[in-house]
Amino acid sequence: MKIGIISDTHDNLPMVKKAVEFFNESDVDAVLHAGDYVSPFSVKPLLMLECDFLGVWGNNDGDKLALQNTAQGKIENSPFVSSYGNRKILLGHYFYTLEALVLSQEFHLIIYGHTHKPDIRKQGKTLIVNPGECGGWLDGKSTIAVVDLENQEAELIELG
């Protein structure tokens, strides 16, 4: 099972559309968003995903009611626990709220955003992934990630 990971899109529609196109072409089973969509219009391209989509709130998400309506109810409070296959996943925005849960070794995959810096590492049985920023506003690099849940491996993808 492959999961697409995206975060910190920050209203950059061209990059969100590129990410959706990449995920659709890569035949991922689901896409998880670690927060910071910002405005409702930036969620619309995510509805074009040809797989399941779920996200959490970030610190820059303004009009939550409009965002939630546009996302058709697919944005949850952070952190959010989910599972795909037999893999337990924790999706959040801030890593500091998830750090203690890494030590618990209860999760196969912990996803976070906020820092705009890619982070892929393994601690015990837990794979930790921050895909960096899809928006690309801070360092000029728009990145996403793809996780292979069966092999516990992640790949960082630069969109341009």
Structural notes for this entry:
With 160 residues, the chain is an alpha/beta fold. The chain has one domain: Metallo-dependent phosphatases (Purple Acid Phosphatase, chain A, domain 2), CATH 3.60.21.10. Helix content is 17%, strand content 32%. The chain contains 3 helices and 11 strands, in the order E-H-E-E-H-E-E-E-H-E-E-E-E-E. Strands 4-3-2-1-10-11 form a 6-stranded mixed beta sheet, with no helix packed on it. A 5-stranded mixed beta sheet has the order 5-6-7-9-8, with no helix packed on it. Strand 3, helix 2 and strand 4 (75-76) form a beta-alpha-beta unit. The mean pLDDT is 96.
Secondary-structure blueprint of this entry?
Layout: E1 2-6, H1 13-26, E2 30-33, E3 52-56, H2 64-70, E4 75-76, E5 80-84, E6 87-91, H3 99-104, E7 109-111, E8 119-123, E9 126-130, E10 143-148, E11 153-158
Parallel strand pairs: 1-2, 2-3, 3-4, 6-7, 7-9
Antiparallel strand pairs: 1-10, 5-6, 8-9, 10-11
